Amino acid sequence: MSEHEDEQLVGEYPSLPKQKRSQQKRDALLESGRALFIEKGYEQTNAKEIASHAGVATGTFYRYFTDKRQLMMSLLEDQLEKLLPPEPNWTNVDPESFFATLLEQHYKRLNRLGLHRVLPELLLKDPQLAEVVAEARKKIHARILVSLKNAREQGIVWADLDLDTVSWSIMVLSDKIPEKLTECGNQADYSKLAKVICRLVFPPDVLKQLKLNKK
Amino acid sequence: MSEHEDEQLVGEYPSLPKQKRSQQKRDALLESGRALFIEKGYEQTNAKEIASHAGVATGTFYRYFTDKRQLMMSLLEDQLEKLLPPEPNWTNVDPESFFATLLEQHYKRLNRLGLHRVLPELLLKDPQLAEVVAEARKKIHARILVSLKNAREQGIVWADLDLDTVSWSIMVLSDKIPEKLTECGNQADYSKLAKVICRLVFPPDVLKQLKLNKK
Amino acid sequence: MSEHEDEQLVGEYPSLPKQKRSQQKRDALLESGRALFIEKGYEQTNAKEIASHAGVATGTFYRYFTDKRQLMMSLLEDQLEKLLPPEPNWTNVDPESFFATLLEQHYKRLNRLGLHRVLPELLLKDPQLAEVVAEARKKIHARILVSLKNAREQGIVWADLDLDTVSWSIMVLSDKIPEKLTECGNQADYSKLAKVICRLVFPPDVLKQLKLNKK
Amino acid sequence: MSEHEDEQLVGEYPSLPKQKRSQQKRDALLESGRALFIEKGYEQTNAKEIASHAGVATGTFYRYFTDKRQLMMSLLEDQLEKLLPPEPNWTNVDPESFFATLLEQHYKRLNRLGLHRVLPELLLKDPQLAEVVAEARKKIHARILVSLKNAREQGIVWADLDLDTVSWSIMVLSDKIPEKLTECGNQADYSKLAKVICRLVFPPDVLKQLKLNKK
DNA sequence: GATGAATGAGGATTCATTCAT
DNA sequence: GATGAATGAATCCTCATTCAT
Prior knowledge:
Four copies of one chain form a homotetramer.
Chain A: H1 20-40, H2 47-53, H3 58-64, H4 68-80, H5 95-113, H6 119-125, H7 127-153, H8 163-175, H9 177-184, H10 190-201, H11 204-214
Helix pairs in contact in A: 1-2, 1-4, 2-3, 4-7, 5-10, 6-7, 7-8
Chain B binds a DNA duplex through helix 1 and helix 3.
Protein name (chains A, B, C, D): AcrR family transcriptional regulator
Region (Disordered) (chains A, B, C, D): 1-25
Domain HTH tetR-type (chains A, B, C, D): 23-83
């Protein structure tokens, strides 16, 4: 057998759960893994704990996952794509409100996943997983970039900024919201940050016009 | 040298090395710790490896540090403050070049430290250390904020943005440079990012004026 | 069986063994611990040895005991009270034979426990355990004292001796039998020591009378 | 070199200290060893601590002793023989006062040595040392036995007791004084125990006569 | 399928002893 | 002689993984 046999993203499941009870157990394990990874960190959580938190025996864990790394991968697979932002139609929205709402939603999703707290640790130790994450980030980045390019074609974004850099900046700032809220403490910062992001994208006069359009 | 000179934040060392050879060993251990933490991750590195990488016996490690956590703390203490940005005089510099240079320096420092790759992992598991880091970040944030406030008094920054949010954004974007360079691959992105940051701070006409002043 | 039945003095076990096989392993570990403590001394025995002597893996030891100290405590708990002497009815027994038999039994019990050889070492290093042992000794002392007091009320013991001191002396001499047999080598010394003890308790004429009563 | 080269009692000294400074250091080490053995137990004390308590470097310890075992042996050699009781002249003393005084002195010596607290631990792990101690005890036992035999020739001890057992009992009870004082707390128990011991030796009428002789 | 007891390699740490200064 | 830093074998304990029930 090749050492690389599980180089598809998540590897083969020890068994493909087809029945309802099985699926429930697998879900319980995923959820317990997520909760414990967030609470105590990836490294500090072991398979036994995940199993017992999910109300199953240690051995059962290994029926559904080869190890906690695979469970982690499944979590990521399930959820990373949920972070893709929607494609906005700039002429229909108030960009500041739009970004503020987006940031809040993004923050809530990040918080629900919670994984952003453990990811950095994992990326270092698990290059395969790092790739999965990088891929997801590239998608997000690309999605933002496309929006910006569309907007530029409409002549509504700064002409002198590198859109790739701008979209990357938006992504980074969005990702760091949880940290900002922790560091600065103010729960209503979304609109402030939304304003900052809008400045990166729209010249003030354009922004004013867009707001008027909306109303 | 006073016996108490480094009894601050990190607690007492198992032994305060007084002799030159000792200091060399301690330094070798610190450097090995740094290198291995960066290379393999904090969790994946153990005291034995650090010692052997530094060319000393396992026991010697414990002569100088109570455990690898303390070594980590020492690394941070030694180096976090080196990340403080200088206080700029906006009327004397071309802001874009200034930021580009700053970003490049910051990137090089981060890379030299390398610790940014292991920090996230640690912050989760070690609240005491998290505090040290948060403190350092607050200092950096504050330093940037002060610069911006001075600039605002000179009427040279956007009047409608929250400076706290702007300075936080600058810090976050700076910190993520290593990641950007990895993700996007382009080593000459500093000026692009510098432009983006300048847009957050200076209205375009002000910026043009500042550039002229410089010349 | 109640889950709480042995949560007394020794604290909770890492796991309360419920199954028969488990109980067997736990017992095997206890027995191995006892044997090795006696053979090599407490300090000289480690968990790995106890486990391998019991035919289980090191980790299994830690499933049943937090450390060897707890195993020691369990041994003591199980067995100290077995050393309590029976309450004699002086008018029904030949005191010399009674004591001789008692001494022999006590000796055999001590030998079976074997712990008397390691106890002194432990008492110094483990005050909690020292308390357990002191408590047991106090019970034994008290039991002897009660017997003597009853006998004195019947007017059959020396009137001029301090009964507390006498009962303490009996306890001490009994405890040292193993040492005496080692030092002096004579296995049939029980009756000699019994005579000595009888002299501490009964005036010769009373003793003669008691012997007659018996016959 | 033979593995048995130090089978004389204490082994060869790494160096025979002839000079005053050396002798002082050696004494300081012995005293520190004694103090720490008593305070923390033999096993719990290490060479480094003994050295530092004596105000010398670790290496110096090994100049004077091959290891802490040898230091222990030296302590015993120096002091065990001090425990030999004096030869009494029964016709000249009040036996009860004599024994009471003897017990008190013995107790004080034991306490000064303090070693009785660590001996049991050692005897088990170090048969060579056990022999040294057994030898010393035999001497003490013999000394008491001789006294008793002399007394018996004068017809002043019980005729029906085994003198060997009686002398052994006296030794054991004497050795346990520290424990009795701890267990029972009464510092003035010497005379009570002296009475008990006298009962083992002298018939009451003889004792009365001896007391009269004294006066 | 499910269980959870058992495994044992591996990490963290200590300390008796040596030896360069 | 004296020093104390350095050594590394040995110990304690954990936990990912297996497997008999």
